[in-house]
Structures are given as C-alpha cells and as structure tokens.
C-alpha cells in the first residue's frame, strides 16, 4: 500500500509537468482527475502510517527505541537525496539559499509558511511530508496511550469525530488572508495561507495520522464491521470522484477521503490477518512496498533534472507532443524505480540493519548460576 501511495504522488507530479506542455484540451480534462491523486496519495500515506505503527506496537517497545528506528528510517535517505539535488541545483544554475536548504535539511520546512521554503521546485520539494512525519513520530507514544484508553464501544465515535475534524479544516482555512496566492509558483491559484494551513501544516496533517491509529485500534479490539476490500476501494474511488468533481480545490487536499482510505487500509489488514490472498500480498507488490519510501524521495529530482527537466532553466516553458511527453514520462518512472531500488539496497536497508537497534552489550564477566530452590 505504501507503493500505491507513492506511485499516486509520482503520477500526479508527472501530470503537472506534462499537461501544460501538450496543450490539448482533452489532456487537460484528464489531468483534472489526476492532479488530486498526489494529495490523495499523501493522505493515504499519513493514515497508513498511523494504522501500521499502531498495528505493530508492542508493550516491550520503548520511546527511545521507537524514535531511534524512525529517525534511522527516514534520515539516511533524506540526507542522500538532499545532497544529490543540491549538487544538481549548482550544476544547472538554480540558486542554493539558506531558505531552500537549511529548513529542509532539518525537516522543519512545513512549519514555516513561506513559499520559498516549502515550494522550491528545484530543491528537495517532496521532503516536506517528512516534517509532518517527525511530528507524528514524536507524539506517537503519547497518542498510543490515549488511543488505547478509549473504550472499545466508543472507538467508532472518536473515529467519526476525527474524520469530521479533518473535513472542517478547509472551512477554517477560509478564515486566513486571501493574499498572496500561489499563482507565481505554478502550483495553484488558491490563497497561499489557505493551502499552507490545510496541506502543509503538520498539526493539521496529524489528524490523518490519528485517524489511522483509531481505525487500527478498532480492528485490534474486534470492532471492525467486516467491510470487504473491494467495497472499501469502491467507496474510496466514489468519494474521490465526488470531491474532485463537486468541491473546491482545497477539499481535494484531504477532506472526507481520509475516512474512506482508512476503511480500505483496515479491510486490507483484516484480509491479510485472515490469510486471504490479495494482489497486495504478491511478492512483486511486497518488493515495491519495500522501495516505496526511496521511490518517493528520488522521484522529485528525477522529475526535475531527468527527461522531463522540470527544474531545468526552461523546464516550465517547453512545448511537446503527446507521444514525446508519454515517452519522457515512462523514462521518469523507469529511472525513478531503478534509483529507488539502488537507494534502498545501498542506503536505507544497510542503515536500518546497522543503526535501528543498539548493538548488544558484550558482557565478559561470567554470571554464576542461581541456586535451585526445591520446595
């Protein structure tokens, strides 16, 4: 499922680059349905993170060990990809400034409501989600205690409360100033403060993480409604189409689809626990899931400095035919997958094996056997 989320983001970003270059009305119409796939993929990943961490949490784990594993999971990939993209920025003459590097280095960029900090396309733009993840990880041990204290019969109630809170956030965002807009960034024409609050602000995005935690606890406590995976997917797709077709753009950033994605995740986890065979359990999909985080991290600089050249000097001014655009898009996907695999096997997996757990202590002193006490 992590791969599904990452691939949705990849396809969305490719579409954002390709559609203006082709300039075909029907391609633009198709793009209107694909653009929200990126934000939906991010929602999917946040809800999934909350669900999985709750699903695998064990009483023997400690906060220190949990935080250690999470930092080792994200930081090596982040530092390597940031170093690569910084070199590419220098090679292609894109400015390297404190604003577009230092907050990203320390993964605090999502807390800063500046387009230069968060939306710099030439830099490691996709890593803003890691700033949100860091908040989730920091709060997870305390949140887990709270979630586990909720009575089983009230879990669905609290899940509904959090789902409604997510839906309310776009309305809260309308209270922010209407200027500046995001037009100059080529990302959207909606007000920047509205976009930042709903999409980038870690505190707001934490609601999706908590939603995933609550739904995981529902399944673990035996309160799941036994909704099948296929009906859950149909509900999620229907909600996606309704949101894209009828609601303002701000709502496509998260809103009601988070709840339906949580149902999909719970249905898949239930099928897995019951031993039912699904496509998601195939060896290929498991492999794709393993490299999904690396795919998410590398796709941005492949998109920026690879065949499509989004971040090259003429990146936003190129014109192209549909066939050439599709060919370049396929190359971006292929190169991203290859680099993701290389990053996973050479950085992420070795780092997790080496540093995710403390090295065992070597006790040289022999311990005398305890006397046997017979009753």
UniProtKB/TrEMBL annotation:
Record carries keyword Transferase: yes
Gene Ontology MF: a single term: acyltransferase activity
Transmembrane portions of the chain: 33-57, 78-97, 117-143, 155-176, 196-220, 227-244, 256-273, 285-305, 325-347
Coiled coil start-end: none
Keywords: Acyltransferase, Membrane, Transferase, Transmembrane, Transmembrane helix
Domain of life where this protein originates: Bacteria
InterPro entries reported for this sequence: Acyl_transf_3_dom, Acyltransferase_3
Entry EC no(s): 2.3.-.-
Region (Disordered): 356-375
Domain Acyltransferase, first and last residues per copy: 1-344
Name of the protein in question: Acyltransferase family protein
Lineage: Bacteria, Bacillati, Actinomycetota, Actinomycetes, Kitasatosporales
